[in-house]
Amino acid sequence: MMKKSITKIVLAFILFFNLSLKAQTGIFVPELVNFDTAMQSLISHYDVSGGQLAITYHGRLVYNRGFGYADTATHLLVQPDNIFRLASVSKQITSVAIMHLMEQGLIHLDDTVFGPDGILNDANYQNILDPLVYNITVRELLTHSGGWDRNISGDPMFNSYAIATTMGVSPPADAVTVIEYVLSNQMLDFTPGTQYQYSNLGFCILGRVIEKITGQNYEDYVRNTILLPLNITDMYPGFNLQSNKLPNEVSYYAYPAAPYAYSVYDNVSLVPWPYGGFNIEAMDSHGAWVASAEDLCKFLVAVDGFPTKPDMLLQSTIDIMVSPSSTNANYALGWCVNTYNNWWHTGSLPGTTTEIVRGSNQLNWAILLNTRPYDPDPLTTAVDNLVWNVLPTIGSWPTFDEWSGVNNYESEPSISIYPNPIKDDLNLIIPEKANIMITGISGQIIYTSLCKAGESKLDLRSLSNGIYILKIKTDEGVTIKKIVKQ
Fold first, then answer.
1. Domain co-membership, 479 together with 361
2. Predicted local distance difference test score (pLDDT) of residue 443
3. Residue 381 is part of a domain; what is its CATH number?
4. Contacts for 393 with CB less than 8 Å, ≥ 6 apart
């Protein structure tokens, strides 16, 4: 009888393992089945509860699948539209917001942040212990060279309860309180601009810079100005407790037998690390965003500098954003970079492992996992290598686009437009007749025309200064360009 019971248990385990290994959602893409295998292997080998992988090729969403479980207790499968904590992948959202403000002339990278002439010259930032703080610039915060070394003075973003009690406020400490505490109680660890030392605090400060410049709450500004125009509607900063998790958000899992943490609310209650062990609500601009892999790909496509889809930033702005800093040849303004013109960033928190990549081969991808093991480094390395390892096995790429349901055409090389930026007239050379449409960034139609083959001149002097989208539709397809009216 015991032998039969054991046999049943073993069979049930094998059945459960096979089901969990095969549990995946989203559209099956035969050409890209090796990505299915790689994700299944990753989840199985590292005991990950669930994850997502989304990939764009030449601006088209060609792969978007969920694997494993969004919630292990209910066996709820990860769907392609589930949302995950991004951890430090949040920093690229803040970087793009800063670059957008720079492009509008509302901020300069070498503006100082603190002091009477700084951006954050409010009364609550005036109690500064170290006079070197007055030299910190926006650029130095973006490049992690502001003067803080967490290996020396610790990471204040993970010291929320102690900071709150020291500052006499109810725990956990919010972002402003953390900044006030550091300014008034700590010396810098090095002279600003002389070293690269990864700093969550620096990006926390950038969130307050965005608020001061725009007069808006950080989340509201980023969502309304950066994300919603890209049709990204389900991306938000997350919350500390599982009871407050967002609709469609996955659950997060520490490694087996992980110790509990003291709650950031009372420093007495023991809680799972992902739910109250740290104050993610104070990490809005450096670690709190929650999103799907698909929406991260929408974000990447809008800033990747490739011609297949219009970017929300000018190419000159993107070039500045991804140029290596003076203190680290492999880090730019919020992005990891290399000499192969690849840009990326990883993210890691208890219960979270993430990465986004903009590849020089017109590929973008995002990998999101709701688990972090005891030693996160091997999993981070495996995530970083996953797509790169599979790419040599891909013989052809799908021609469809999950975002539109139809084939998209790449920009026709025989089409020429000039000048850009423009003042009055836009010259257009096309090989065949075409319908011309100009829209605003948010999609409103500004101008339409039917042009013959050859050279045409569009009188655009009545347009207000700004950024517009030019769509050229011929029998061969649609070419999309971003134009700037000055």
1. no
2. 60
3. 3.40.710.10
4. 34
Cβ neighbours for 201, distance < 8 A, ≥ 6 positions apart: 146, 148, 155, 156, 157, 178, 179, 182
CA–CA dist 151, 482 (Å, integer): 44
Write down the pLDDT at residue 449. Answer: 86
Whole-angstrom distance, CA of residue 185 vs CA of residue 423: 52
Nearest to 76 by CA among 361, 433, 300, 370: 370
> Both 351 and 335 in a single domain?
yes
State the Cα–Cα distance between residues 6 and 10, nearest whole angstrom: 6
Average of per-residue pLDDT across 466-472: 80
What is the reported pLDDT for 476?
A: 60
Q: Are residues 385 and 466 in the same domain?
A: no
The reported pTM is 0.80
Give me the CATH number covering residue 448: 2.60.40.3080
Distance linking the first and last C-alpha atoms of the chain: 84
pLDDT per residue as tens digits for the range 398-429: 999 999 864 333 333 467 788 888 888 898 88
E strands in 379-444: 416-418, 425-430, 434-440
Beta strands in 166-248 (DSSP E): 236-237
Mark which of 391, 408, 425 sits at the end of a domain. Answer: 408
Q: Which pLDDT score, from 0 to 100, does residue 422 have? A: 87
Last residue of a domain, one of 381, 408, 435: 408
CB-count exposure of residue 58 (10 Å: 0-12, 13-18, 19+):
buried
Same-domain pairing of 474 and 367: no
**Which domain, by its residues, includes 103?**
29-408
DSSP state of 252: -
For residue 416, the cross-strand partners are 429
Same domain, 372 and 333: yes
Per-residue pLDDT, averaged over 192-203, amounts to 98
Residue 388 is assigned to a structural domain of this protein: yes
The set of residues, in sequence order, having a beta carbon less than 8 Å from that of 316 and lying 6+ positions away, is none
pLDDT, tens digit, for every residue of 30-47?
Answer: 999 999 999 999 999 999
